[in-house]
Amino acid sequence: MKLKILSDKAKAAIEAEFPKYPDKRSVLLGALRIAQNEVGYLSEAAMVDVAEILELTPVQVYDVATFYSLYNLKPVGKHVIQVCKTLSCALVGAGQIIEHIQSRLGIGVGETTPDGLFSLKLVECLASCGTAPMVQINDRYYENLTPEKVDRLLDDLRREGKSAMASGPFQLPVLGGKS
Amino acid sequence: MPKYEPVLLKNMSQPGYTGTLDEYRKAGGYTAFEKVLKGIPPSEVIEIVKKSGLRGRGGAGFPTGMKWSFIPKDHPGPKYLCCNADESEPGTYKDRQLIENDPHQMLEGIGIACYAIGSHNAYIYIRGEFDLGAEIIQRAIREAYEAKLFGKNIFGTGFDLDVVLHRGAGAYICGEETALLESIEGKRGKPRTKPPFPATHGLYQKPTVVNNVETLANIPYIINRGPEWFASLGTQKSAGMRIFCVSGHVKRPGNFEVPMGITLREMIYEHAGGMRGDKRLKAIIPGGASAPFLTDAHLDVKMDFESIAQAGSMLGSGAVTVMDEDTCMIWAAMNLMEFFHHESCGKCTPCREGSAWLLKILQRIETGHGRMEDLDLLVSLSKRIEGRTVCAFGDAEISPVLSTLKHFRAEYEAHIQERRCPFRPNVVLAMAGSH
After folding, report:
1. Distance (Å, whole) CA B144 – CA A15
2. Beta-carbon neighbour count of residue B4 at 10 Å?
């Protein structure tokens, strides 16, 4: 059957995962990731295509797609800002960061800017509690944030599509207790 | 010099160390894997790990060697090892540091664990948000294959091992071991009813061990330095070093690798530098969001499984969240309740519906609309969730509520009597209803 929306390249990428598992269904989470990366979100057509490739029913795919928070069932902006709102971040200013982003972008939580550049989501703990407050934007973390850093970050993303403020491998200088 | 000699955080504390295979091998990496493959029978490896006293670092603290010994030896088909890198317990960020800075420790541990339980297939389940971690692990796995440390006929011993990285997609519950297995199988991450346990009916219904990243990373050191060395660190029942993650209102948040059994006071006031602004400490969550709150009266409690349990909480994932005197305890409990409500997988009614009710009641108390009878309602609701769910999530979600009620009842009463939050009088639930 001809695929509705996914490219042959996406199909090949999904099929390349098959040898890693004894059954095709195990590829589902990865397949949805590949589909979302290509289409921008998980449209119905994309999910039907995934079902076709994995020999599942569309409802089996939809069932899983609606369970996990990283799948977007509706179109989102180019940069999806996920602000951690759980306790360790909230204790040191996540609320302020959320308010600041809302006022800077003029959108509420769950909304996308009219130019399609930014979406704002609040999420639960991202394992960055010692470098709070923080946000994840697409595939990178931005830590130890202040409203001023958020301004710089948004400017970077607007201007260049990326920012050098993204975290590299985990960095905290204190190890094994102080002397 | 650190006060305690780090183990898992040692390599990465050397200037310039980036965790490549070459660097890891120069630091002695993969010698333990070679040693067991070439000369220690699997059953003996299990005995060594048992003797070390190593207990799971993910949260439950189950003895690792015993977990391995439950795998049936004569099982004909495949067996699996799953490394739990789904680090999601609020306050916890140690596995992320281990993965991003020295991933081969975990990979070597996986190799040794697989050999011990007779598995030739390992899956590393990493939370979907860890994009950088996934890239780093994938690179490390590739390095290990290229150096013939994974794959066929490792060290010429005839032992084969395939290691696959499996990425999650955003769900706290997938850190629960049977939910993790469901998720690898391409399903919703809903915990299974036990028994049967994963040791006999795990991934694809085959015998399976699920171990946390930090647990596995400890294995090579236990092999090389001996179980007696490991058992000599920490306390009698809580052996070894442990990486504690300190966050919240401290001057120097961070991951600190210390022997188990130091006091909360030493952790917070020495290692984490004390309270920000030198304020008074009000509350401590000593083991992640699932662990009941403690107070400044517990500062001299020792950080080992038994002592923390005796104090009425849980050592859990080793995440220590510290709150100062200006923190509203109802707000804090509500924040965690939002987390639990969002993350409840929905399988068990008491957990799914109960979390919504608990959250609603906390919200009305925090915004000045609470009633005195709400306090009894919180307790009776919690008691109807406790012990009535398939996994430990139900018991976890009631702990912030019950423990703040226990230690800070007067604060709840003040909210209700004054019809406002004494700490945040203009509260408008900025963080609520956000999902």
Report:
1. 24
2. 17
CA distance B47 to chain A (A): 29
Taking alpha carbons only, the member of A133, A137, A119, A149 closest to residue B247 is A133
Distance CA B265, CA B97 (A): 24
For residue B332 the two structure tokens come to: 């804090």
pTM, 2 dp: 0.96
Average pLDDT of chain B is 95
What is the distance between the alpha carbons of residues A43 and A51, in angstroms, rounded to a whole number? 13
Rounded CA gap, B204 and B265, in Å?
Answer: 45
Question: Can you say whether residue B288 is alpha, beta or left, with left for phi > 0 and alpha for psi between -120 and 50 degrees?
Answer: left
Asked if the Cβ–Cβ distance from B247 to A178 is below 8 Å, we say no
3-state secondary structure of B418: helix
Give dist(CA A50, CA A14) in Å, integer: 9
Rounded-to-integer distance, Cα B106 and Cα B100, Å? 11
Chain A residue at shortest CA distance from B257? A176
Nearest C-alpha neighbor of B150 from the set B164, B140, B163: B163
pLDDT for res B406: 98
pLDDT at A173: 53
Shortest Cα distance from B336 to chain A (angstroms)? 7
Task: Tell me how long chain A is.
Answer: 179
Mean pLDDT in residue range A114-137: 97
List the beta strands (DSSP E) in A102-178.
Answer: 118-123, 135-137, 140-142
User: What ipTM score was computed for the predicted complex, to two decimals?
Assistant: 0.95
